[in-house]
Amino acid sequence: MSQNDLDQTARDILIGNDQGGYTVPTKGLYPYQWNWDSVFVARGFATFNPDRAWREIELLFEGQWRDGMVPHILFRKDDPSYFPGPSVWGTDGGPIPSSGHSQPPVAATIVRDLLELDSSDAAAGRAKGLFPKILHWHRWYMQYRDPDGLGVVAVIHPWESGRDNLPDWDDALRAVEVKDVEPYVRKDTSHVDPEMRPHKEDYDRYLSIVAACRKVGWDPEKVARTCPFFVADPGITFILLRACRDLLALAGKLGLKEHMAEIEGWISRLESGAARLWNPDLKAHVALDLRTGKLTDGVSSASFLAPYAGLSGPDVLPAVQDHFDRIGSKVRYLMPSYDPDHPKFEHLRYWRGPVWAMVNFMISRGLSEAGDAVRAERLRADTAALIQSGGFAEYFSPETAVAAGGGSFSWTAAIWLAWATPSHAEQAA
User: Fold this and answer.
1) Model pTM above 0.90
2) Total domain count for the chain?
3) What are phi and psi of 18, to 5 degrees?
């Protein structure tokens, strides 16, 4: 397929997955509106339909909870093809039935992007309408996912990280007692090869966490104190730190200076806290189980997001580059979601090894901003090659380029249009 054909196919996927203002990740497997999927989708729409890009994010924030949380799934309709649906979650925190936890907060970064792509008064007005909602969400994260002010952001569920079955969650998940789980039938494995999905024992514990949070009514303070799973995540921490920097820039651009001191305080706290996630033996940022105090022992793709968060000092950037080069010599395509030298690496099982286009986009952006254009371009070229070979799949094998997971995937199409397509690279040059 030619470059122009791929560009058009990507646009067609976004249009085809549009449900009337919001976009599903892919039909069948994911029939609802997902949080960070939608925000990346908006970045793709911005390349050919700016109004639709703003609308995507505005509709996501329609589901914001009263406490500020933006859920990871909005159940705008009850679709029996997906499990667990709204009845399992049992939430009532917002105006739309939803899951009970959040997902990586990329919205501020993409809203800033949209405003830089379109500096009109109309665009500024839409950004200004979203600003207080994003501020409220960030405040929720800082209050309820870092309740002790450590400067690291925890997830209460592997799904909240956006990287569901990452090996970093294994030990903490194993400590979750399986209880209060009704008999259930998974639907994901009817859409995708089970060998590419989490194991059943993982799902039993996923649902046990949901049951535990449901017992306390999804009260965010009680959840933070009692949830059986509470793990500080470098992915969320770095994405939020980056988002806070972008929110600060938005406050300045939109004349909302009264909020800048609060945001600057969050940035300072997260910058300091990042050191808690540093594993000195690995020379990498890793996850930290806040219930046990134990650091994990593997380099994940989130370890490479430190420069994206603005952390690129002499102790960090060279270590990131060393791991980049080491892993780049082990696999054909970067960046695998987990270290291929680790015994838990699986090149086709969801977040235990495959390459994800939107993570590559963020890592590349951080490296580019840190002055490392060569490695940044390697990621873009690898992502483009995977899509050219396997189409707009959910994820790809870093070893064989096999396309895996869902097909006609919205955020893969969006990342192609916004970053990976050679036509975009040529325009940027």
Assistant:
1) yes
2) 1
3) -70, 125
d(CA 191, CA 199): 15
- Among the listed residues 164, 297, 339, 372, the single catalytic one is 164
User: CA-to-CA distance for 373 and 394, rounded, in angstroms?
Assistant: 26
Tell me the C-alpha distance between 114 and 327, whole Å.
Answer: 33
pLDDT digits (tens, 9 = 90+) for 48-67: 999 999 999 999 999 999 99
Q: Which residues contact 279 (CB under 8 A, 6 or more apart)?
A: 285, 286, 295, 296, 297
Please confirm, yes or no, whether 262 is among the known catalytic residues.
no
Angle 35-39-42 from CA coordinates, rounded to 5°: 140
| Active-site entry in 7, 18, 394, 399 | 394
Specify whether 113 is catalytic. no
* Residue 112 parent element (H or E): helix 107-117
Q: How many CB atoms lie within 10 A of CB 11?
A: 19
**Nearest CA-CA partner of 233 in 329, 399, 102:** 102
- Tracing tokens 């300072």 back to the chain, one arrives at 268
Element (H, E) at 395: strand 395-396
Give the domain CATH number at 185. 1.50.10.10
Instruction: State the helix-helix crossing angle for 35-45 and 50-61, rounded to 10 degrees.
Output: 160
Return the bridge partners of 18, or none.
23
Boundaries of domain holding 358: 3-428
Q: Which two tokens stand for residue 12?
A: 């067609």
The model's pLDDT over 253-290, given as tens digits with 9 standing for 90+, comes to 999 999 999 999 999 999 999 999 999 999 999 999 99
Amino acid at 112: R
H or E element: which one contains 268?
helix 260-273
